[in-house]
Write a structure and sequence with these properties.
By secondary structure, this protein is of the alpha/beta class. The chain is 29% helix and 17% strand. The protein contains 10 helices and 14 strands. The chain has helices spanning 55-69, 87-95, 112-122, 136-143, 148-160, 181-191, 217-225, 291-296, 301-313, 333-336, and strands at 12-13, 19-20, 22-26, 73-77, 102-107, 126-130, 166-171, 194-198, 230-232, 243-247, 253-257, 270-273, 278-280, 289-290. It has a 12-stranded mixed beta sheet with strand order 9-10-11-8-7-6-5-4-3-12-13-14. The protein has a two-stranded antiparallel ribbon with strand order 1-2. The longest helix is centred in the N-terminal third of the chain and has 15 residues, at 55-69. The protein is globular and about 55 Å long. The two termini are 31 Å apart. The mean pLDDT is 94. S-adenosylmethionine is lined by residues 31, 37-38, 77-78, 80, 106-108, 130, 169, 171, 198, 200-201, 203-204, 333-334, 338.
Length: 338
């Protein structure tokens, strides 16, 4: 096996030649919804305050990623990133980096109507809002909170603030919301949002995922095709997780993220930083590299970059969900950063 790179600068490359340019940063493991497929009603044992990276530590690690490791995209996620008090300051500091990375946010949309103008003003480029159903009773059951109206207001606020594109992410689940794919697409088309329909992955805190019950990308496409004409999207897919189609000849598009049945690991360009400062090379990784410990022990930027590159070198070829030895990672999605 080739040895891991030892230089402190240069892109994040793994032994298969994949280069990570897209950094997902989790700002908190906490959330103000309790989606049944993500976490239990009572929540989870949250990270303690001192375990969390401070705002300055987060910005420093992102600076290392951008200045030394070739990262060009930074996406904030969680838990729920909008509940991090320092979010606007963090986005502002990252927007000041040179070269300036593109900055996006994945959110449940609660509070976005209020925060979108400030986030846009300091440099947020675009947003993905998670919304699995348009039915209020169903939303309340699924998220255990009666907040559909706030999410819809958040979406409208994001568009009004000039964040573009505004994407809507929906996970489809059998017997829960699998009848809603066409309605979600109609909604997205009517508002100028871009819909992404997502296969459910084995990342729930309750370990209740069941492959047989999962709604597959093929089923999602069949449901959409019952109402819409989907044609091949001429745009390059690149490293995007979503396969996209033109809807009724375009220009509107819809995307399907078939992480389980149509894995895209060979083109993956992501690296992840958890809210407690651990680098993960994959949602499904069982290994983490502790940058917080190194940073707090006095490591300089060159040493942090070296550790990050070493972690990247160990990235596995694929997520392995279909392998008999697959083990769901100990951290649930909410603590990794979806
Ligand atoms: N709170 C933010 C939000 O709601 O978008 C960010 C974090 S949340 C974990 C990110 C995304 O992961 C959401 O769209 C959520 O629906 C999705 N998600 C959570 N558990 C999932 C699973 N098991 N499989 C696929 N997607 C999942």
């Amino acid at each position: 096996m080739t040895a891991a790179p030892t230089t402190t600068d240069g892109v994040l490359v793994d032994r298969y030649g994949r280069v990570a340019r897209d950094l997902r940063v989790s700002l908190t493991d906490r959330c103000n919804l309790r989606c049944t497929y993500c976490m239990p009603a009572e929540g989870l044992p949250w990270l303690a305050g001192p375990e969390l990276l401070t705002d300055d530590e987060i910005v420093r690690l992102i600076r290392v990623a951008v200045h030394r490791l070739g990262v060009t995209e930074v996406r904030f996620t969680g838990g729920e990133p909008l509940i991090r008090p320092g979010l606007v300051g963090i986005v502002s500091a990252v927007a000041g980096l040179k070269p300036r990375p593109r900055i996006s946010l994945t959110t449940n949309g609660l509070g976005l109507a209020r925060l979108a103008p400030a986030l846009r003003a300091v440099g947020l480029d675009r947003v993905n809002v998670s919304l699995d159903t348009l039915d209020r009773a169903r939303f309340t059951e699924l998220t255990r909170r009666d907040r559909l109206a706030d999410v819809l207001a958040g979406l409208a606020g994001a568009a009004a603030a000039g964040l573009a594109p505004v994407k809507v992410n929906a996970v489809l689940m059998r017997g829960v919301n699998d009848d809603e794919a066409p309605a979600l697409l109609r909604f997205a088309l009517a508002h100028g949002y871009e819909l992404r329909l997502i296969e459910q992955m084995p990342l729930d805190a309750q370990h209740g995922w069941d492959r047989a019950a999962m709604v597959t990308a093929d089923e999602i496409l069949a449901a959409l095709r019952a109402e819409f004409d989907l044609s091949e999207d001429p745009a390059e897919r690149g490293a995007a997780p979503a396969e996209t189609w033109l809807v009724d000849d375009g220009p509107a598009r819809v995307g399907v993220i078939g992480s389980v049945t149509r894995p895209f690991c060979g083109d993956c360009d992501r690296t992840r930083l958890t809210a407690d400062g651990q680098v993960r090379t994959c949602l499904f990784a069982n290994e983490e590299a502790d940058l917080r410990g190194a940073l707090r022990a006095g490591a300089d930027d060159a040493e942090l970059a070296r550790r990050w590159r070493g972690a990247m070198w160990g990235k596995r070829a694929g997520h392995g969900i279909d392998e008999p030895a697959f083990l769901q990672p100990a951290r649930p999605m909410s603590a990794i950063g979806g």
